[in-house]
Amino acid sequence: MPAMTDLLVFAPHPDDAEIGCGGTIHAQVRLGASVVVIDATRGELGSRGSTAERARESEAASRILGLSGRENLELPDGHLRGEDHQARGLVIDAIRRHRPLVVLCIGGHARHPDHLALHQLVTPAIKAAALHRLASPSGAAAHATARLWYYEAELPAAPSFLVPLSDQDWAVKHAAIACYSSQLHQPGISGPATTIASAGFLDAIDARGRYWGFAAGAAYAEAFGAHEMPRIRDLRTI
Questions:
Q1: What is the phi/psi pair of residue 234, to 5°?
Q2: 64 with 37: CB under 8 angstroms?
């Protein structure tokens, strides 16, 4: 039986996991959890940077976050489809191979079509991964115990719960995002205008983190949604 991964994170493009839940990833690694990120695409349609640059950037960010592993499904950037059964098979296979306790995926309150599509791919894949007679590419056995939560996309959403984060967690998130220099604002370097390349992008990420942190009684926090209710055994932990 393959070793179980504590946390499996699905992201549409290299950098989405860091932006959406990088602080939580570091906090869980700091607590001893194993975390693997699955990027759906190589970001080849990105307005800035090459696929080779983005691959090097994601490797650097992975080291900073302390990931146990990172994979890329090499699905077509800009052309993800929520009803693509072949792509869903790859998602199911990743879940079965890594056998996670928890799956994080980008939320569906989004504008980017790839963000919406990955949300639509992963959501039913959680249940499909548990179907014993449903084949997947690697032949990995069914996995039925993963719980699915959604990290915030580019549009804020009403969360089901918050993960409080320390200043250290947030600093590591910042360092991981900074690895994607090809995508971020660089004074004196021109390129196509994008949201992530705007001068105020990181300030907006910080503002959201501080807002949720105030609600969570912490320096920062990240917000997560769900289609099902969290299960709380010890009310003192709420």
A1: -120, 110
A2: no
Tens-place pLDDT, residues 5-20: 999 999 999 999 999 9
Closest by CA to 114, choosing from 104, 105, 125, is 105
Burial 91-120 (b: 16+ CB within 10 A, else e): bbbbbbbbbbebbbbbbbbbebebbbbbbb
Write the pLDDT tens digit of every residue in 109-141.
999 999 999 999 999 999 999 999 999 889 999
Strand order in the sheet with 220-225: 69-75, 35-41, 7-11, 102-106, 147-151, 220-225, 161-165
Instruction: Report the predicted TM-score, pTM, of the whole model to 2 decimal places.
Output: 0.95
Integer distance in angstroms from the first to the last C-alpha of the chain?
Answer: 34
| Helix H or strand E encompassing 72 | strand 69-75
**Mean model confidence pLDDT for the chain:** 93
Q: How far is 67 from 65, CA to CA, in rounded Å?
A: 6
The answer to whether the beta carbons of residues 188 and 131 sit under 8 Å apart is no
